[in-house]
Design brief:
This protein is an all-alpha fold and about 70 residues long. The chain has one domain (about 10-65). The protein has helices at about 20-35, 45-65. Helix 1 (about 20-35) runs antiparallel to helix 2. The protein is elongated, with a radius of gyration of 13 Å. The protein starts with 18 loop residues before the first helix and ends with a helix. Mean pLDDT is about 85; it is low at about 1-5.
Length: about 70
């Protein structure tokens, strides 16, 4: 646990955050996945879960702005 109070603060998600905050959150998580992809065997269960959550969160933001 970090001093932020979350194991991985970039994965924190609040449905009431402004859209620009949500998109920045998604951008940071995508960057982490890109970094993990550069490491041999860098994708594990956490990365697969993060990718699934990014998909869900993008759908949420798209619905929100539609």
């Amino acid at each position: 646990m970090t001093f932020f109070g979350d194991d991985e603060p970039e994965d924190a998600w609040d449905a009431t955050d402004p859209v620009d905050v949500q998109l920045d959150n998604i951008r940071r998580r995508v960057a982490l996945l890109v970094l993990a992809a550069a490491i041999p065997d860098g994708w594990g269960d956490r990365e697969r879960l993060r990718a699934d959550q990014i998909d869900e969160d993008l759908r949420f933001v798209i619905e929100r702005v539609s």
